[in-house]
C-alpha cells in the first residue's frame, strides 16, 4: 500500500545515517591509533573498551595510561563532553610539580612568583595551541591518527623523529626519578610515624620549628646535625631498638633500596593495565592537598612583609635573581604538549578545543597559584624564615603531623601505581623505536628498567632535591616540545604558504630564545 514520506523525514534519516557513518569512521581511527602503540600480543594500550560506543558511560584514557570512568558524560558514541575534556587535561597536568611551587615562589620572590605563574601559563598555553594547530596545517588527506612526534617527523625527517623521542624520554625518565625521590621520602616519613606510634616513642625533632599543635619545621636549618634522621629520643622506649631502627630506616641510605624490591618486578610486567584502575587516587590526592593547605593556612594565619629588593632575617625580596628556577619548574608544571592532540581528538565539539584547552589551563594555573600563594603567605615568619620553605612543602610538616601523614599515604600509593605505567611508556617508546618490539626479551626490558631504577636510587641517595630535578628536566624537554618545535613548525608552514610576516617571525624567534635562555639559566643559578 502506498505511503507518503515527508521530505523532512528523509533529511532526518539521511542525517542519522551520516552521523552513524561518521562515528564508525572515528571509532575505527581510534582503534587504529591504540593498535599502533603496542604489538598485538600486548593488550595494555590496545583499543580499550571506552573507544567503543557506550550508551551510559565513558572511559577517559590519557596518554600516561590513566583511566577514568565517567557516567552520563557522552553522547552515546564515545565522544567526550567539554567538561570531561577539561577535566582530563587538568588531571593530566596536575602532578608532582605542585609540591615545588611554593619553593619556586620563594626562589623568585612572592610578587614575581605570581607574575611568572601568569606569564608562563599564557606562554605555554599559546605554544600548546600551536601544537594542536600544527597537524591541521599539513596538506595531507588524513592526519587524524598523527601525534605531535609524527608532525615533527614530517617537518624535520628522522632528526625530528629521534629528537622528539629523546626529549620525550627525558620527560618520562625525569618524572620517574622525581617519583622515586618522593616515594622514598613518603615511605620514610610514613614508616617513622608508624614505628613511633606502635612503640609509644616520644620524639622531639632537633630541627628548628614552631610550637603548638600546628607545628612547622625548617629541615634545611639542621642539615649539618649528626643524627641521621635528625631526631633524638628523650623518653619512653628502648634506646637500642630505636637506634637500630634509625640505622636501617634511613631516608637516603636504605629506603630507596627497599622500594627496588617492590617496584622493579612490577616494571618487568608485559602489561601494567591493572594499575590504571587506581588513577583516581591522583585526583583525590590533589583535592586533599588543596584541603590540607587551606586548613593549615586557617590555623597559621598570614605572615607577609613586602621588601621589594632587600632581604632580612625572616623575609625574602619580592623580586630575586633566582627567578629562572621557578620558570624551570613551571615549564614542566604546564607541560602537556606531547599528548594534547590525543586528549582533544575525542572532544565532541572540535570547534570548542581552543576554549576547552584555555579553561583547563586556567584551572591548572589557578590550582598552582592557590597552593603556592597560600603556603608562602601562611608560612610562619617569624619565628622561621621564608628561606625554610622546602622543595617539597610537605617536608615543612613533621612526620607525626596527622594531616601530612594522610597526604603522604595517598601520594605514596598513587605514585606506586603510576610508576609502572610510566616505565611501560618509556619501554614502548624506546625499545619499539630501537628494536621494533616493545618487549624484545626479558633481558632487554630488565636492562632498561635497571638503568631507570638505578637513576632513581642514585638521585634519592645523592641529590634528593625534587625542585632541582623538576626544573632541569622541565627546561630540557620544554625547550623542544614547548618552545622550539611548535614555533619552528608554525613558521615553516606559514613560509610554505607564503604567509610568513616579519612580526610573526620575530615573535616566534623570541619564544625560541626564551626557551633556550630558560634552559641555560638552570645551570647558572
From TrEMBL:
Name of the protein described by the UniProt record: Neutral amino acid transporter 9
Entry's Gene Ontology cellular component terms: late endosome membrane; lysosomal membrane
Mitochondrion keyword on record: no
Domain of life (superkingdom): Eukaryota
Major subcellular site: membrane
Keyword line: Amino-acid transport, Disulfide bond, Endosome, Glycoprotein, Lysosome, Membrane, Metal-binding, Sodium, Transmembrane, Transmembrane helix, Transport
Keyword Transmembrane helix appears in the UniProt entry: yes
PANTHER family to which the protein is assigned, alphabetical: AMINO ACID TRANSPORTER (PTHR22950), NEUTRAL AMINO ACID TRANSPORTER 9 (PTHR22950:SF244)
Location within or outside the cell: Late endosome membrane; Lysosome membrane
Domain (Amino acid transporter transmembrane) ranges: 81-192, 257-521
Residues passing through the membrane, by range: 83-103, 109-129, 162-182, 281-302, 322-344, 356-377, 402-422, 442-463, 469-492, 504-524
Catalytic activity: L-glutamine(out) = L-glutamine(in); L-leucine(in) = L-leucine(out); L-asparagine(out) = L-asparagine(in); L-tyrosine(in) = L-tyrosine(out)
Membrane topology of the entry: Multi-pass membrane protein
Gene Ontology terms, MF aspect: L-amino acid transmembrane transporter activity; metal ion binding
Family: Belongs to the amino acid/polyamine transporter 2 family. SLC38A9 subfamily.
Pfam families linked: Aa_trans
Amino acid at each position: 500500500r502506498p505511503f507518503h514520506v515527508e521530505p523532512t523525514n528523509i533529511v532526518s534519516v539521511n542525517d542519522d545515517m551520516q552521523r552513524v557513518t561518521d562515528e564508525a569512521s572515528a571509532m575505527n581511527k581510534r582503534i587504529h591509533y591504540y593498535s599502533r602503540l603496542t604489538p598485538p600480543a600486548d593488550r595494555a594500550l590496545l583499543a580499550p573498551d571506552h573507544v567503543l560506543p557506550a550508551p551510559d558511560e565513558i572511559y577517559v584514557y590519557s596518554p600516561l595510561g590513566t583511566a577514568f570512568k565517567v557516567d552520563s558524560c557522552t553522547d552515546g558514541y564515545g565522544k567526550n563532553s567539554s567538561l570531561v575534556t577539561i577535566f582530563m587535561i587538568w588531571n593530566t597536568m596536575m602532578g608532582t610539580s605542585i609540591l615545588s611551587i611554593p619553593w619556586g615562589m620563594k626562589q623568585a620572590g612572592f610578587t614575581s612568583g605570581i607574575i611568572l605563574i601568569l606569564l608562563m601559563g599564557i606562554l605555554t598555553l599559546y605554544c600548546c595551541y600551536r601544537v594542536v594547530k600544527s597537524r591541521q596545517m599539513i596538506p595531507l588527506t588524513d592526519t587524524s591518527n598523527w601525534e605531535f612526534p609524527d608532525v615533527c617527523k614530517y617537518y624535520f625527517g628522522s632528526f625530528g623523529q629521534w629528537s622528539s623521542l629523546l626529549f620525550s624520554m627525558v620527560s618520562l625518565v625525569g618524572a620517574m626519578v622525581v617519583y622515586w625521590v618522593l616515594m622514598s621520602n613518603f615511605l620514610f616519613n610514613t614508616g617513622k610515624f608508624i614505628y613511633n606510634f606502635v612503640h609509644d616513642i616520644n620524639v622531639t625533632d632537633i630541627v628548628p620549628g614552631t610550637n603548638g599543635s600546628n607545628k612547622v619545621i625548617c629541615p634545611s636549618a639542621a642539615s649539618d646535625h649528626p643524627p641521621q634522621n635528625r631526631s633524638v629520643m628523650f623518653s619512653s622506649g628502648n634506646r637500642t631498638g630505636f637506634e637500630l631502627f634509625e640505622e636501617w630506616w634511613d631516608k637516603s641510605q636504605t629506603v630507596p633500596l627497599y622500594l627496588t624490591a617492590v617496584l622493579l618486578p612490577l616494571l618487568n610486567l608485559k602489561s601494567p593495565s591493572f594499575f590504571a584502575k587506581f588513577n583516581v587516587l591522583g585526583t583525590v590526592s590533589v583535592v586533599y592537598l588543596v584541603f590540607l593547605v587551606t586548613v593549615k593556612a586557617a590555623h597559621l594565619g598570614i605572615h607577609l612583609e613586602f621588601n621589594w629588593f632587600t632581604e632580612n632575617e625572616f623575609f625574602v625580596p619580592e623580586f630575586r635573581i633566582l627567578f629562572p628556577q621557578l620558570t624551570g619548574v613551571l615549564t614542566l608544571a604546564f607541560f602537556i604538549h606531547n599528548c594534547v592532540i590525543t586528549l582533544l581528538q575525542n572532544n565532541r565539539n572540535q570547534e570548542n578545543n581552543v576554549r576547552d584547552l584555555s579553561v583547563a589551563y586556567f584551572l591548572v594555573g589557578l590550582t598552582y597559584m592557590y597552593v603556592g600563594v597560600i603556603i608562602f603567605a601562611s608560612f610562619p615568619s617569624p619565628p622561621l624564615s621564608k628561606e625554610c620553605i622546602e622543595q617539597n612543602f610537605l617536608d615543612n610538616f613533621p612526620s607525626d603531623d596527622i594531616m601530612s601523614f594522610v597526604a603522604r599515604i595517598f601520594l605514596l600509593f598513587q605514585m606506586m601505581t603510576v610508576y609502572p605505567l610510566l616505565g611501560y611508556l618509556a619501554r614502548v617508546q624506546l625499545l619499539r623505536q630501537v628494536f621494533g618490539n616493545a618487549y624484545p626479551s626479558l633481558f632487554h626490558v630488565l636492562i632498561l628498567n635497571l638503568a631507570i631504577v638505578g637513576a632513581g636510587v642514585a638521585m634519592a641517595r645523592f641529590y634528593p632535591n625534587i625542585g632541582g630535578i623538576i626544573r632541569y628536566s622541565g627546561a630540557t624537554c620544554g625547550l623542544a616540545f614547548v618552545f622550539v618545535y611548535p614555533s619552528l613548525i608554525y613558521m615553516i608552514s606559514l613560509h610554505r604558504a607564503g604567509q610568513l610576516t616579519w612580526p610573526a617571525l620575530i615573535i616566534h624567534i623570541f619564544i625560541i630564545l626564551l626557551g633556550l635562555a630558560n634552559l641555560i639559566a638552570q645551570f647558572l643559578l
